[in-house]
Amino acid sequence: MEATCSHLLNLLLSLLLLSPRAFSAGAVADTFSKGRNITDNETLVSADGAFTLGFFSPGVSTKRFLGIWFTVSRDAVCWVANRDLPLNGKSGVLVVSDTGSLLVLDSSGQVAWSSNSTSTSPVEAQLLNSGNLVVRNRGSAHILWQSFDYPSKVMLGGMKVGKDFWNGNEWYITSWRSADDPSPGAYRRALDTSGLPDNVVWQGNVKKYRAGPWNGRWFSGIPEVLTYTNVMEYQMVISPREITYGYIVKPGAPFTYIVLLDTGVVRRMVWDASARKWQVYFQGPRDVCDDYGKCGAFGLCDASAASTSFCSCLRGFSPVSPSAWNLRDTSGGCRRNVKLDCGNGATTDGFLLVHGVKLPDAHNVSVDRSITVEECRARCLANCSCLAYSAADIRGGDIRSGCVMWTDDIMDLRYVDHGQDLYLRLAESELQPPSPPSSSRPFPTALVVGASVASLAVIILILSVLVVIRRRRRPTISLSGNPTVPSVELSSLKEATRDFSESNIIGRGAFGVVYEGHLPDGTKVAVKRIIQSPLVDEGGEAFMREVEVMSKLRHGNLVRLLSYCKDGNERILVYEYMKNKSLNLYIFGNSKLRALLNWERRLKIIRGVAKGVAYLHGLSEEVIHRDLKPSNILLDDNWRPKIADFGTAKLFVVDQTDPTLVQTVGYTAPEYIMEQHLTLKCDVYSFGVILLEIASGRRNRTTPMLLSYAWESWNQHKINEFLDSAVAQPEPELMFELERCVQIGLLCMQQLPEDRPTMYVVVTMLNNNSSQIRPPKRPLFDSRTSSPLREADRSTQEASSTSRESYTVYLT
Asked: Which one is the CATH code of 490-576: 3.40.50.300, 3.30.230.70, 3.30.70.1110, 3.30.200.20?
C-alpha cells in the first residue's frame, strides 16, 4: 500500500513539475508526428507523467541538448540524442522527416542528430511510460527505432545490455565526459558474454571493476540486490541468439535507475518521494577490494584486513615479488608453491574450498549448465589445465548445479557477503593443514579447525551411539551435518496402528503395506511395514544403509522419514502423513476427483515433482529413485506433491554395484528394460511419463498410445484435445504453459538417454516461460516391446540436434 501511495505521489509531483506550457492549448502529449515539431520551449511527456523529453543544458553548460529525464528530477537525465553535437542557443527543434526519421535541427536548419529510421508510410514518435522514445508507423505496433537501443549513461527498467549474436548488435552504457558534457566519456559498462555473463566497467581497454559472474539469481559480487527485490526484478536471457541482461521495475515501486558516472562509478538510484531526492542503493566499486586485480593472480582480497594491505595469497601460493608486497604493491599477484601432479591419466591433486567469495574473472571460462557440481569436480580433475571449478547456478538454494571451470589465472577474487564457493586445485601436499596465519580473517584455519571440531563431534557421537546400541540394542542413524533419525520400539508402532489392523491400511505396494498411525500426542503418521524380500538381508545391513541415505533427504517435495524400526525380522519406516493421499487417485479417478486438480494445481504439482527429483539427483551420491509413478507421489493438505517410496526397495546410489532390477510397466526407461543400464536419465524418462499423465488424465499402460498421442497433439498444435477433459479448458496463458509442459514431457521421454535433459534443466524450463525449448525428436515404436525404437528417424534427429536450450531467469 505504501509503495502504491509513493507511486501516486510521484505522478502528482510529475504533474506539478511540468512546465506551464504543458497545460496550455499548444502543449503536446506523449505522441507527435510530421508537422508537430518540438521546439526548445516545448516538451513531450509520457502518459503516466514519469518521463519528460525536451531540450536542456547540463550543469553549468550553456549548450543545448535533446534529452529524456525523470519528471520529478530534471537533473536525472536518462538519454541524450545529440550528445556529440550540442546546439548553440535555444533555437533547436525536433522534427519528423519525410523519410520517417527523427531529426534535431539547429537554428540554420542543419542536422545535429538523426534517428536514421526510414519508412514509406507516415510515422509517429511516442515517449513511453518506460522512458523509451519509439518511432513506428502510425497505427502500427511495430517499432522502427527506439532510444533504448542507443543508451547513454543510464540503464532504465525494460532496457537491456549484452549481445545479439544473430545480427551482431551490442548494447552497453557509456559515461558522460563530465557532469557538464554528455559526450561519450572514458568509461563504458558492458556485459561480458564470453564465459559466465558479468557486468564489467572498462576504461578504454582496461578493466576497472566487475559486478561478478551471473550465478542464476544475481551477479555474485552484488549481494546488495537481496535488499531491494521489492523494487525490481533481474532479467537474464541466455540463448543461442542472445545473452542479455536487464531489469523490470515492480508495479507501484519507486522510480529507479542505474547510472555510470564520469568517474567510472556505477550506482543504483532509487527515488525517495517523501524526501524528494535520490537515494544510493548500491555503488560499485564499493571499497578497495572492488578495484579490478587489486591482489593480482591467485590473490584474495579482504576489505576488513587493512593490516595486510587487504591482500593475501591463496593457500598453496606465495607472492611473486615479496619486496613489492612489503611496499604494499600487491598487483603482481602470487605463484604456486608446489607443481600440480597431473599426467598419464592419474593425479593426486585435490581441491581447497574457498568459501564466500565473488567468483574470479570468468572471461573465457568453460561453462556447462547441464551437469552436476560433482560431475564438474571429476571433469576438472581429469583436465590438467583446470585450475578451479564452481557451481554455475545457485537457483536451487542449497542445491548448486552446473559447472564453470577456470584454466587461466584466478584473477580478481575477493570475500563478499552471501558469496559463493570456489574449489581451488592444489597439490596433495598443499592440502595439509597449514600453521595458523596472522590475518584478521584466517580463512584456511577456519576450515581446518571447523573440520577438526566436526570430526571430534562425530567421534563422540559415534561412541554415544555405540553405547546406546550395547545397552538397548536399538540403533539411531546420524550423519555428520544431518538431522538424527531415531529408531522406535516395535511395541509403540503396534499401538499406533492398532497392531497393524487391516482397517488402518491406507496403501499397498510390491514391497510393503502402509498403515495410518496415531502417535500418543495425536499426530498422524504413515507406517510402512516392509515385506520380506531378497533386498532385505538377514542381518539388516542393506536396510540400515538405506535408512542412513534417506536420513539425508530434506526437501519440501520429498516425504520425510521420521523414524524407523528394526526388530528381529521386522523392517518398518515411519513417514509424515499425507492427507490427500496419492496423485493417481485424482488424475485417474472419477470426473469429480479429477476436477479437484485444476490446471493451476496440476502445473504446481508438475513443478514440485520436478524439483524433488532434481534434488535427489543433486545429492553427492546422486540418488536415483527408479520407481517414479503417480502412486508414489503423495499430496499434502495444500496439494503440494511429495515423492514417496524412495526407500528400502528402490533407492539406489551410483556407487552400488549389481542393482536389483525394478520395473513398473509404462514408467521404465527403454535402456533399463533392454540393457539394465541405470542412470539418472531413467528417472527423467519416468518423470516425462508422469507429466503427460497429469496433463491428459490417461494412463500410460501401453507406451505408444500416450506417447504417440502426445506427439501428434503437440506437433499439430492441438494440445487442447490432449488435455484432461474433466477439467475446464484453460485460459490462453495457461494453455501456453501446458503446451510447453507437453513438449518438456516429450523431451524427457526421448528414446536415447543423451537426448533427454537433466532434471535441473527440466526445472529451469518449467519455471521460465519465456525460454526457448528445443523440439523433441519424433518417436517411432516397436510393436513387440511397446516401446520406442532405438533407431529414431535420422532426419528428425539431425534437424533437432542443432537446437540448443535457452532460458530466461528472474529474481523475485
From this structure: 3.30.200.20
Cell numbers linked to 310:
587487504
Q: 627 catalytic, yes or no?
A: yes
- The tens digit of pLDDT for each residue in 424-438 reads 999 988 886 554 444
- Distance between start and end Cα atoms, the chain: 18
Dist. CA 610–CA 766, nearest whole Å: 9
What is the per-residue DSSP string for 711-780? HHHHHTT-HHHHS-TTSPPPPHHHHHHHHHHHHHHHHHT-SSGGGSPPHHHHHHHHT-TTS--PPPPPP-
User: pLDDT tens, 57-103?
Assistant: 999 999 999 999 999 999 999 999 999 999 998 999 999 998 889 99
Q: How far, in Å, CA of 294 to CA of 264, rounded?
A: 16
The secondary structure of residue 671, as a DSSP letter, is: H
Q: Which of 349, 412, 627, 645 is catalytic?
A: 627
CATH of 584-810, one of 3.40.50.1360, 3.40.190.100, 3.30.70.270, 1.10.510.10: 1.10.510.10
The 10s digit of each residue's pLDDT in 712-756 is 999 898 999 999 999 998 888 789 899 999 999 999 999 899 899
Q: Is residue 752 within 8 Å of 670, Cβ to Cβ? A: no
Which three three-digit cell numbers place residue 479?
550423519
